[in-house]
Amino acid sequence: MSALDNHQRHSQHGLALRTHHVLAGLIFLRLVNVLCTGRTFFQPDEYFQALEPAWNLAFGPHSGAWLTWEWKYQLRSSLHPALFAAAYAAVDRIAALLPCLPSFRASLRVAIPRLVQAGVVVTGDLFTWKLAERVYGQGSRSAWSTLTVAVLNPWQWYCSARTFSNSFEATLTIAALSYWPWELLGDATQTRAGYAMRTGRLSSLRISLSFAALAVLLRPTNIFIWATVVLTAVARPTLQGRSPMSFRVILVLLREATLCGTAALLLSALSDRLYFGHWTFPPYHFLQFNLSQDLAVFYGEMDWHYYLSQGVTQLTMTFLPFALVGLYKSTVKCSPDVTAMQSNTLKTLSFVTIVTIIVLSLVSHKEVRFILPLLPVLHILAAPSFANFFSATPGRQPSQAKTALLAGLILVNLVIAAYLCLFHAAAPIAVMHFLRHEYERIHPDRLSFWPTQPILNHYHTLSTSQPPAGSFADAEVADNELFALFLVPCHAGPWRSHLVYPSLRARALTCEPPLHTAPQSAERAAYKDETTRFYQGFGEHEDWGVGFLADEIWPVVADEGVSSNGSRVSGEIPRYIVGFESIEPMLKSFFDGSARGELSSVKLRKVWRGWNGLFSDDERKGDWLAVWNTGVFA
């Protein structure tokens, strides 16, 4: 064997060993990450667009999942929930074979989505590093800096480790970019035309296009990323060198895109057919509802500059200066020290970032997580300036000032990540654990009642958009008490993925959009959902919610013969009421001041209190969340 062969063999072995070490480190970090983020609440879609439909898929239509209106009208792809449903079913089948207590099985069901998400975010981190090595070179300082930035970024810890479809989209996108044939952006004088289409490169291209197609089906707005990549490769605006693209290469790209796109479409269609019970195409319904019904505005409008002034800042946090420098240098300034392919690749990645932000800025409803797929790209762009700033001059040790600054940066990132993942908005998760454990203590005989529906069933009950107060037809369970009433803003916490037991009956305020009204109509302008009606007058007077409770939660209706005054309460009085402490004066005013005999037995007693963080973006969500026992059950 030649010396060259030995060198290549040792190089490949070293690369594999390094990859294994990086992978092991990432798995450990992200397991810690998901266990921490599992303590806090960020946004409802983490649960209601992923875990609730997954729960319904895994355990059947009588399992108590809360399916929102988007699932009724097939606006969401079932591919993402199917990932968690498969994990739910697999773990539950294994646990059923073991002598596990029901409470232990319940804890497993709460934990398993986090473990799946750990795998998702580890995969995203690994492909971010792999793409950085393709761009900057294996073992390069900038490649390692990319991995460092990704690991230290507090927003990556806070958001990417959650079960958002955007997190899955981000992983699919960076994996697709990692496999993409960037040689197509090189200089034809340095790379032979058609080089990227050889057999080995063709399989890489197919993997890239398959991941890209799945990302687009999952989130249709992902198309802007790939339109930018492809158009830049073909048109080469401001790129260096002569294009290696030929007519044959373009035909191969079209052929493979058609084949991979069709395969992904068939997979998605089959999944949706099994989930919804009929053939449907969620991306079409998503666009139809948002364009014809203009429903996005119902969930809030932001200024056109939201992503520029807030979005990118939140994504990159302390690494914002390095990301901005990287964007500038990649887009405007051409370094003579890099190859044409490296320069053109970085420029394309910067174009992807700029174009996606511009296009999404035209949409009225904006959220930071909508641009989450850009975060790995920003990490790659930020890496060279980060490495150069903290690196020592050749032949010298790093200055004490830079060493102290780097230590301070790491400390600040750790503090931010620790607060966001462990303490910020932790009460909505903690209260679910409290209620579940209370149910286990009070009703130990009802913990083993589980549905036996097959995982791939036709679910004709997907039309539900109300939180199920009870699910089973079994009389013993159906007659059970209403265990908890949530008087909090709609979707202010998880649901069945944390309550777990289908027999644990609960009720919460809803916030369905006005699907029955025409856009810009007077009826739509006057529409108020349950949450809005309950909080109407909040902070203006002490009795702001009394009317809602009297009219919609515990309404008095005529019913001769039931009582001496010919009336009764048609609503159920729960064992526990859950709400932020700001509602306590109103509750006491309602129950203590009520002249209704049916409510005279309610004697509120606070039994649990949880801190909800230093600040909130909603004035209705105070510093503390509380649980009151109504005293009507023994």
From TrEMBL:
GO terms for biological process: GPI anchor biosynthetic process. GO terms for cellular component: endoplasmic reticulum membrane. It comes from the Eukaryota. Its EC number is 2.4.1.-. It is found in: Endoplasmic reticulum membrane. Its main location: endoplasmic reticulum. One of its GO terms (molecular function) is alpha-1,2-mannosyltransferase activity. The chain crosses the membrane at residues 211-235, 247-270, 304-328, 348-364, 370-392, 404-427. Pathway: Glycolipid biosynthesis; glycosylphosphatidylinositol-anchor biosynthesis. It is a multi-pass membrane protein. Keywords: Endoplasmic reticulum, Glycosyltransferase, GPI-anchor biosynthesis, Membrane, Transferase, Transmembrane, Transmembrane helix. InterPro entries: GPI_mannosylTrfase. Belongs to the glycosyltransferase 22 family. PIGB subfamily. Mannosyltransferase involved in glycosylphosphatidylinositol-anchor biosynthesis. Transfers the third mannose to Man2-GlcN-acyl-PI during GPI precursor assembly. This is Mannosyltransferase. It comes from Coniella lustricola. The lineage of its organism: Eukaryota, Fungi, Dikarya, Ascomycota, Pezizomycotina.
